[in-house]
TrEMBL record, chain A:
Coiled-coil ranges from the UniProt annotation: none
A Pfam entry, by short name: SBP_bac_1
Protein name: Extracellular solute-binding protein
Keywords: Signal
This protein's record includes keyword Signal: yes
Biological source species: Streptomyces tabacisoli
Alphabetical list of InterPro entries matching this protein: Bact_solute-bd_prot1 (IPR050490), SBP (IPR006059)
SUPFAM superfamilies in UniProt: Periplasmic binding protein-like II
From TrEMBL, chain B:
SUPFAM superfamilies, alphabetized: MetI-like (SSF161098)
Transmembrane segments: 30-51, 93-114, 126-147, 175-198, 231-249, 281-301
Species per Swiss-Prot/TrEMBL record: Streptomyces tabacisoli
A single GO cellular-component term on record: plasma membrane
UniProt record similarity statement: Belongs to the binding-protein-dependent transport system permease family.
Protein name: Sugar ABC transporter permease
Domain of life (superkingdom): Bacteria
Amino acid sequence: MKPRNLAILLTTGLALTATACGGDSSDDGAGGKVNITVACQPAKTAPKQRQAWNDDVAAFEKAHPNVKVKSTDQQPCFDPKTFAAKLAGGQMETVFMVPVTNYADVISKRQAKDITGDTKYVKNFGDIKQNVRDMVTKDGKVYGIPNVSYSVGLVYNRAVFKKAGLDPDSPPKTWDEVRAAAKKIAGLGKDYVGYGEYGGGNTGGWHFAQAIYSRGGEMVQDHKAAFNSAEGKAVLQTLHDMRWKDNSTGSKVNIGWESLMQLMAAGKTGMMLGAPDVVTDVVQKFQGKVDDYGITGIPDGKASLTGGEAYMINPKANAAQTKAGLEWIDFQFNTPGKGRFDFARGKANGEAVGVPNNDYMGDSPTGKKLAEERKANASLPVEYYEPYVATSTSVEPKLEPEKAQELYAVLDVAMSAVLTRENADIDQLLKDAESKANSILAKS
Amino acid sequence: METLTVEPQRRTAPRRRPPSKRGRAARRNLSAYGFLCAALFCFAMFAWWPIVKEVLLSFQSTNLVDPPTWVGLDNFRTVVHDPAFGQAWRNTLVFTLLALVCGYIIPFAVAIVLNELRHARAYLRFVVYLPVMLPPIVAVLLFRWFYDPGPGLFNQILDFVGLPTLSWLDSTSTALISLVIVSTWMNLGSGVLIYLAALQNIPGDLYEAAELDGAGIFKRIWHVTIPQTRLILLLMLMLQIVATMQVFIEPYMLTGGGPENATVTVAYLMYQYAFVYGGNYGAGSALGLMLMVALLAVAAVQLRLTREEK
């Protein structure tokens, strides 16, 4: 080919490619085949779970012959870094998952469809706890179907407890008891960390919120920072003393939600704040020993930060896609014995079944059935999680504060300060954080 | 008849004028223009348009779904009033300065040493260049282990030689310099390679003349090497400033901006606005625009200096 022709071909090719990039397949939605895309297909590295998902898709399509489901396997299936760009570029799935930390943001930016009149397609929607449904409701309009809800507790390593001469069946109930237990564990040797804590990447501030709630404190009240309080000071003072007087927190400033779980799985960390799903991840992702972990209620137990997730519908979905998407959510995530709640299949596939990491249906008939089936098919020692279950009803669940991520970033500074500086001035740190937080909260 | 039939044809078809000089050149360069169009198209699509988009975004508020709304200078006000704004700029400048001290001088010194060597030169060049081949994320993870306050390599070494161990990433006084060390290590190979290329272009007789005049190694470096590589040194200085002022991966992976905001950089703050604080792309773009203007100023100074050198 002559260079000139090649150049023309190249230019034309590029232009055509660019034009093609803007294209998008549309769905007729009226009487014909309804195409939907659904997020959260398990990765290829989990072949059994992936096969189970694909079987579910096939079963769903058989039950809904006019619906064609296409799955995407991005992991993690909600990624704040790509979420808005995917939505803007028309690449967002019809049905996508949003963690509770991002509900308010996604809903306020109208990045999820108002499905108020369509919740009838989810049979057990009425069984979902009201306070959990409230989280996906704004101005009386529903924007998602919650599927997971739990609150934070204290995850601890039973094997390390035994080694330190502590009774794993009687875990700490207060922060004073946590401190005492952590000191004993740290006494096992220089590689042992009694109580692990975060100090950066917004995870430090996130755990500060968990700890202050547990003591009965508040993060924000009347749109003003409320953490410069006796409870807030107690959070930092305890941590400071554990680090510098007891030497029981280790000398590393952990950042990133997975770092503490990795340490927990390595078997040298005694305790950490965490939801029950921490146990699932420690065992499944980080190869911790199944029998080593227990969960108990959050120390002091005045209140606990809630976590969870919901599935939402793409705002660009048409009526037929919305209906099909909600029917998929109903089938895959809300029916006992099916999809996510096929505990028998999960156990057969080697999944960590038995962790009480979901209480979104409460005491409703569906909730009771789910709890029974989970217990009947447990592959984990459920008795080790009884202290958490026993205390969970008496602990008030609390939502994340407004402007949560910004406030967490501000409080990272205070958390990292007490973990890295012996002479950290806690009063000053809280005062500085308060004034920074108030300027953030003052913005619309 | 023959003449009659031929003549009108000649009359109706105007004589083609020979193409002008410019036309001939244009035709000759047609294929080059074709290639140029393709390249320009790619540049426009993937380099210039994002820059234009960033400038626009910094004056807009958007959720990337609905049409954006113009907010004037609101995004700039937001970032300027951010408590971390001043510290982010300070950290960025300190990082750049430290990176210049380490990342500018060390590669030059290594290049001079390598250039002087008579044996194993190729092998050592490969060894020095090796870290560049390592994906940055792997290099950063490697250093995370080196810096670990417990079983980390650096503290093990300090302990072995009887020196007190350091907190490395976990102290406000050492965190930033620890990031500079990672950055220098990762980029050492590229710098050395460029300096080596420049050093090998210096005529050997200059050194011979200097030696005849009794110049030792340091005098030879001062009077021959540095003047002869002045242009490349200037270019590298600018590249180094541009690269280090955009430092992101090191604080993102190693410190999360901490402890106590000691390693928050402008690029890291930009990332936080765009992806951590609920997708405030406008504020992130405003910060990006500020950084771009600062770097443009550096580039302008460098261009002026280079022109004077020529």
